[in-house]
Amino acid sequence: MNNNLSGRGPIIKDMVITPIAIKDPPLLNAAGLHAPYALRTIVELITEDGIVGISEIPGNDAINDSLTEAAPLIIGKDVYQLNQLQASINSHFGTDTSRDRGDAPWDQRKLVHVFSALEVACLDIIGKVVNRPIVDLLGGKMRDAVPFAAYLFYKYEGAGGSLGFGTDENAKGWASARQDAAINPEGIVAQAQAMCKHYGFQSIKLKGGAFPPEEEVAAMFALHEAFGGKMPLRFDPNAIWKPETALQYGKEMEPILEYLEDPVRGQEEMAKLRKAIQTPLATNMCTTSFEEIPASVRLGAEDIILSDHHFWGGLKASMELAKLCSTFGRKLSMHSNSHLGISLAAMVHLGAALPEVPYALDTHYPWQSEEVIQGGSIPFVNGSVEVPKGAGLGVELDRKALEKLHQQYLQSGLTKRDDQIEMRKVHPDWTFQKVRW
User: Fold this and answer.
1) Number of Cβ atoms within 10 Å of the Cβ of 229
2) What is the pLDDT of residue 100?
């Protein structure tokens, strides 16, 4: 531990960047099909006195190259001086713009990923120095456990990884159900029942945009019938619907939805739809940066912002976003991408610190069958995750697992996410369209 009382905190001596690949089933979405492996990057910051802080972010070559380029800017920095660290990053790289986000459902900006990785790792170190969990560095714990929602996907049969579209016949329970095809309402209901039974989720989200609207809306009504009116339901077609389609089916689903996420593309179309239907609208596509909030407020683009500390510039920035949401009449929840326990732990610390959590948070965690932290998968109890009790993030790297997943990355041959390429392995002529139906 660092007992330095001179006002100078632990100094970063080294940064280790380890790209990994994790098995991912063939999940469908508006942009195509998940590859057999999802890419993540594990970042370790090591101080002069040997304290290691860790973080996890979405991985691709561009982000990894930027992290490598950022290393000389980080070495020698005091982990407490996050403002200086961010200023150095911005001075060197410039800043992201909303245009850098891209058209796909996932966020393609580099610098918000880079800084969020560095910030979480620094906070992990600070927590270890002062022997406090990260939630206390964000203002303190408002709840002991954070609720998450069942995150359903249309999918082809398959376990992902080396099995691809094949399955492990020895799998049981959710591990078996996770492999099953779900391409119709019956398959979606069966998936929901298996996931909720295993994790105890108290609300359900379906990722749409993969099939014609009438088929996906039928699945939502099938979920409503199977689980009853007390189970909150939400639906996300990833902005692939035309305005007239969103109006038709948005009104049809009004009686059963907790909220409707990104039914149309862009703040202006979201605002028009919001005036025409009663269901709250949520987004992680039309309002994804602080620079977009003024237009969001002026237009009335959404009711709920789905934050993501990987995309909003870290945990502290997400706490700032919570204040803005409260000021301008927005609710705040969380978006998710394929992730492991380091990201989940960070999400839980943030979720525990937020003033309120009006909606269960998103998580892809049930779809991942591997882990990079000691002790294996983080447990869910009644759909919630307890705030880790240890200092900092409260989770530590499993070195053997890290090496295995790094070798998996090297063998996968993947350098970035491209769901269109994967979809063409099944449907050779398939092309991503920003607006399809």
Assistant:
1) 10
2) 62
CB 26 within 8 A of CB 397: no
Of 87-96, 192-201, 297-306, minimum mean pLDDT range: 87-96
State the DSSP string of 363-379. Answer: --GGG-----BTTSSPP
Question: If we measure between CA atoms, which residue out of 97, 102, 95 comes closest to residue 291?
Answer: 97
Q: Rounded to an integer, what distance in angstroms lies between the CA atom of residue 81 and that of residue 63?
A: 23
Mean pLDDT value across the chain: 94
Per-residue pLDDT, averaged over 131-136, amounts to: 98
Q: Could you give the residue ranges of the DSSP H alpha helices within 370-418?
A: 399-412
Tokens 């109890």, residue? 381
Alpha-helix runs per DSSP H in 200-314: 213-227, 243-253, 267-276, 293-299
Q: How far apart are CA 427 and CA 436, in angstroms?
A: 16
Q: Is residue 60 exposed (0-12), middle (13-18) or buried (19+ Cβ within 10 Å)?
A: buried
> Percent helix, strand and coil across the chain, each rounded to 5?
40, 20, 40
Q: How, if at all, do strands 304-307 and 281-283 pair?
A: parallel
Q: pLDDT value at position 112?
A: 82
Residues identified as active-site: 207, 335
- Among left, alpha and beta (phi > 0; psi -120 to 50; other), residue 314 is left
d(CA 409, CA 418): 15
* pLDDT tens per residue, range 311-323: 999 999 999 999 9
Query: From CA 60, how far away is CA 64, in angstroms rounded?
Result: 6
Query: Residue length, the chain?
Result: 437
pLDDT at 101: 58
Phi, psi of 320 (to 5 degrees): -65, -40
**∠ Cα 154 157 161 (to 5°):** 105
Q: Let me know if 379 is exposed, middle or buried by CB neighbors in 10 A (0-12, 13-18, 19+).
A: exposed
pLDDT in tens, 87-123: 998 888 877 666 665 666 655 567 888 899 999 999 9
